[in-house]
């Protein structure tokens, strides 16, 4: 082989390698998909886990190279998120999925910093601290109708418990958590007005922990509510919710009939305290896994919906209760299915603002 051909071959190989990295390809020409976790761990039974499961589902179907990085700080800030995004980019990852509203300002910066990368921001939209959406074409935002999921959970809880008191524990009073709260209140009220229930939800039993990670605080808040006679708590609070589940499990082991409504993903298994018995009445789910998977699939099909804020609700499978609810009788699941259809067709409209509801 002539020296010219050798030099030409070397240059071609080098160019292909550079092109592969620039396009975010790795391992058989497949796109490399990265994820940066929010506060908590990859198995948090919530946003991190649901997002990663969606990434892994895409990996298994399409043979992708995937990786997640966890910020070192216990309560990560914008700089911590950007640092891990930088690390993924340096390693050739050109599609990144980031779960949680706390990524909003970080994504606002990196979408311009890395115009050849694609960003999926779950549960928020990019902005410069002013909450005014500012999308580049390489970023898509995903939001959910949490109020609809909360409404269905409220109906189910009221039908199961029938009478007595309910409670709500939120992590922080951020819009997504507030919408869960307001939807839950509306669901309980709907059941009381239409389904022969009388479940009470008062302001003293609607509490925000100002944390998504303080397990001990969740346990303490749940204990205080149960001590006051609350029978079911909707915990939309990440790790704080884990503490509430643990408190309910401890009481269930001694014979107390107390319940937790899980959030984001199906948390039934996390509440098992004896055999297959669980304190998780049901879970107000957001299709986190589904949306993460669908955005990756869209990119692979050259249909990435960049520059848009997409809303997932009852009409497109974005919210629901679990398909299997061992603690709910058929009468309840049938009624929930019926109400879901009414939400889809607009017969029932669930408000996503406070109005006269408990904040």
Write the layout of secondary structure elements.
Layout: H1 3-22, E1 25-26, E2 30-36, H2 47-62, E3 65-69, H3 78-90, E4 95-99, H4 104-113, E5 118-122, E6 139-144, H5 146-161, E7 163-170, H6 175-194, E8 198-200, E9 206-208, H7 215-227, E10 230-236, H8 239-253, E11 259-264, E12 272-274, E13 277-278, E14 280-286, H9 288-300, E15 308-312, E16 319-320, H10 330-344
Helix pairs in contact: 2-9, 3-4, 5-6, 5-10, 7-8
Account of the 3D structure:
With 359 residues, the chain is of the alpha/beta class. It folds into 2 domains: 24-144 and 289-314, Response regulator (Rossmann fold); 146-285 and 329-344, Rossmann fold (3-Layer(aba) Sandwich), CATH 3.40.50. Helix content is 42%, strand content 21%. A hairpin with a 2-residue loop joins β12 (272-274) and β13. α3 (78-90) packs parallel to α4 (104-113). The termini are far apart.
The CATH class name of the largest domain reads Alpha Beta
Provide the domain count: 2
Shape: globular
Low-pLDDT regions: 1-29
CATH architecture identity of the largest domain: 3-Layer(aba) Sandwich
User: Can you summarize the main beta sheet?
Assistant: 7 strands, mixed
Helix and strand element order? HEEHEHEHEEHEHEEHEHEEEEHEEH
């Amino acid at each position: 082989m002539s020296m010219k051909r050798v030099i030409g071959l070397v240059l071609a190989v080098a160019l292909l390698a550079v092109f592969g990295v620039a396009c975010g390809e790795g391992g058989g020409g497949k796109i490399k998909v990265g994820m940066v976790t929010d506060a908590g761990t990859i198995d948090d039974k919530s946003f991190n886990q649901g997002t990663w499961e969606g990434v892994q589902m895409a990996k298994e179907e399409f043979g992708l190279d995937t990786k997640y990085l966890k910020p070192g700080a216990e309560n990560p800030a914008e700089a911590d998120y950007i640092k891990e995004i930088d690390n993924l980019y340096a390693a050739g990852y050109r599609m990144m999925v980031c779960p949680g509203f706390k990524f909003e300002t970080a994504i606002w910066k990196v979408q311009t910093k890395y115009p050849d990368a694609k960003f999926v921001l779950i549960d928020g939209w990019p902005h410069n601290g002013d909450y005014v959406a500012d999308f580049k074409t390489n970023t898509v935002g995903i939001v959910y109708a949490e109020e609809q999921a909360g409404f269905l959970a409220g109906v189910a809880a009221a039908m199961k418990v029938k009478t007595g008191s309910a409670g709500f524990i939120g992590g922080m009073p951020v819009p997504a958590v507030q919408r869960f709260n307001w939807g839950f209140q509306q669901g309980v009220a709907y059941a009381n007005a239409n389904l022969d229930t009388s479940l009470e939800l008062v302001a003293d039993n609607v509490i925000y922990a100002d944390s998504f990670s303080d397990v001990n605080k969740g346990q303490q808040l749940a204990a205080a509510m149960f001590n006051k006679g609350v029978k079911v708590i909707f915990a939309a609070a990440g790790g704080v919710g884990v503490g509430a589940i643990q408190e309910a499990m401890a009481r269930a082991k001694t014979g107390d009939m107390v319940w937790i409504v899980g959030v984001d993903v199906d948390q039934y298994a996390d509440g098992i305290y004896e055999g297959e018995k669980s304190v998780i009445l049901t879970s107000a789910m957001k299709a986190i896994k589904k949306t993460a998977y669908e955005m990756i699939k869209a990119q692979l099909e050259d249909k990435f919906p960049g520059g848009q804020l997409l809303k997932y609700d009852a009409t497109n499978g974005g919210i629901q209760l679990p398909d299997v609810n061992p603690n709910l009788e058929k009468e309840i699941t049938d009624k929930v299915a019926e109400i879901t259809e009414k939400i889809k067709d607009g017969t029932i409209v669930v408000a996503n603002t406070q109005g006269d509801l408990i904040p």
